[in-house]
Amino acid sequence: MKAPALPAGILPACLVLLAGCGPFSSDKNSERPAAARAFPRADRPVAPIVSTRWSSEEARDRVNEAEDIMDRAGIRSGMTVADIGAGEGYYTVRLAKRVGDRGRVLAEDIMPEVIEALSRRITREDWRNVSVKLGAPEDPKLPENSFDRILMVHMYHEIAEPYAFLWNLSPALKPGGELIVVDANRPTDQHGTPPRLLACELAAMGFRLEELVPKPTAGGYFARFKRAAARPDPAAIVPCALRS
Question: What is the pTM of this model?
Fold first, then answer.
């Protein structure tokens, strides 16, 4: 439907209002992490972190979720894998079992209390091939050229600074390594990520979508990406958005 015309005198008032918002916008930008300010904001809502778990481990195992996702991702013995947004460690411990003694798993989260609880679980269950790391909203702080697979399961929509985050994550993949995203096909403010939006944001950072398949037993879809281009200059990034 065509928008109604603005009454006379309204446009100048709007321009004055917008001009007065300059310092406010600057103030909002100053609230962002310093390392993220060179990157554009996400042009869509960012879901708040409301829980460290997507569902109970028992319910997820009943539908064979982790085994199915790990099979699809090609995770095998001896690999090095990062579990981003590891939460309580559902995927972390199952990845550790899959990659075995010759492999390694790095579990990352941005919440100190989550990392502390996960560290206790790893110690209690004696997963000697797992390490944990505290990341940041704009940087997972992964070592470069280290991972065959990086998994982000039901957490992409919670990344507050996706362009900075992906830019910093990209060098952590080994040549031929893959980024795996599992999420729900719904708006980001409803704790999901529409696949077209996901593919657009990752393409802006030099990733190519290799596979996208529905995974109802994992609560959404499975997406597999590879690096296809160098990281862009942060100032050249144009944020993606889905328009109705």
Answer: 0.85
Domain 47-228 bears CATH identifier 3.40.50.300: no
Terminal Cα-to-Cα distance of the chain (whole angstroms): 12
Confidence grade of residue 31 (pLDDT, cut at 50, 70, 90)? confident
> For residue 95, what are the CA distances in angstroms to 78, 167, 193, 217, 225?
11, 25, 24, 18, 19
Between CA 242 and CA 27 the distance in angstroms is: 27
Closest by alpha carbon to 203, among 162, 235, 175? Answer: 162
Amino acid at 88: E
> How far from 184 is each of 2, 14, 96, 148, 209, CA to CA, in Å?
33, 38, 25, 24, 17
| Distances 135 to 76, 97, 185 between C-alpha atoms, Å | 25, 23, 26
Instruction: Read off the pLDDT of each residue in 208-233 and give the average, rounded to a whole number.
Output: 96
* Token pair belonging to 140: 């997972």
Q: Give residue for tokens 């918002």.
A: 21
- SS3 label, residue 179: strand
Helix (H, G, I), strand (E, B) or coil at 41: coil
Distance CA 236, CA 242 (A): 19
* Contacting residues for 209 by C-beta, under 8 A, at least 6 apart: 199, 202, 203, 223, 224, 225
